[in-house]
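Design job #97: recover the sequence.
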């Protein structure tokens, strides 16, 4: 009984700590959702019909705006990796990853569709090119997100989504990022068995999270 009582106390302490941390996680956010939306629209305007140019515009703006003492960014836009999650397949370039935020370019020239996942963070899709379609249970019509639009996927909700041919987006997540990783990795074990890509994804993500923790960015 003493052993189980001790375990219960530790569990309650852990839950209490998690609840408390959830109430203060906003203190560690660096990016602003409205500013990112403006940046995405500026990128489209600066390089119309040129997704590569949009990406370079975004990365340059971010590196010029945020000092490396505040947040660490990954300027190497050649570090693209495949991403299979929820049945959907695309590629991503990780611009930033920390415990409470990530910022990526995600998309595919071929098109894909799948499950959004039950996420532990709010997810913001700023559509740069192409079009995203979204459906929630009970909806009788889909919602369309063309270039320049924002699709906000709140934490704890689930949807079906489709990205058409040539759809690319600036994706920003804010909340608790590590609990989202099993969703991002599970298709490797249940379907693709693409362990080299999993290794590369873990290596890049872990490297960026550690680089940010070393400067105090949680």
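Job complete. Output follows.
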């Amino acid at each position: 009984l003493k052993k189980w009582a001790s375990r219960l106390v530790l569990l309650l302490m852990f839950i209490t700590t998690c609840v408390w941390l959830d109430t203060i996680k906003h203190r560690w956010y660096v990016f602003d959702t409205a500013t990112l939306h403006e940046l995405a629209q500026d990128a489209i305007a600066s390089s119309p019909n040129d997704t590569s140019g949009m990406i370079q515009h975004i990365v340059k703006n971010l590196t010029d705006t945020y000092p490396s003492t505040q947040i660490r960014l990954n300027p190497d836009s050649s570090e693209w990796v495949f991403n299979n999650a929820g049945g959907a397949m695309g590629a991503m370039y990780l611009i930033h990853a920390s415990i409470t935020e990530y910022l990526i370019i995600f998309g595919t020239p071929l098109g894909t569709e799948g499950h959004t996942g039950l996420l532990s963070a709010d997810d913001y899709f700023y559509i740069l090119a192409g079009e995203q379609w979204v459906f929630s249970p009970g909806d009788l019509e889909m919602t369309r997100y063309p270039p320049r639009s924002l699709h906000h996927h709140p934490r704890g909700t689930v949807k079906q989504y489709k990205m058409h041919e040539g759809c690319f987006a600036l994706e920003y997540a804010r909340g608790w990022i590590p609990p989202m990783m099993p969703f991002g990795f599970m298709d490797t074990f249940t379907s693709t068995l693409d362990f080299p890509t999993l290794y590369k994804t873990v290596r890049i993500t872990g490297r960026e999270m550690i680089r940010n923790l070393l400067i105090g960015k949680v």
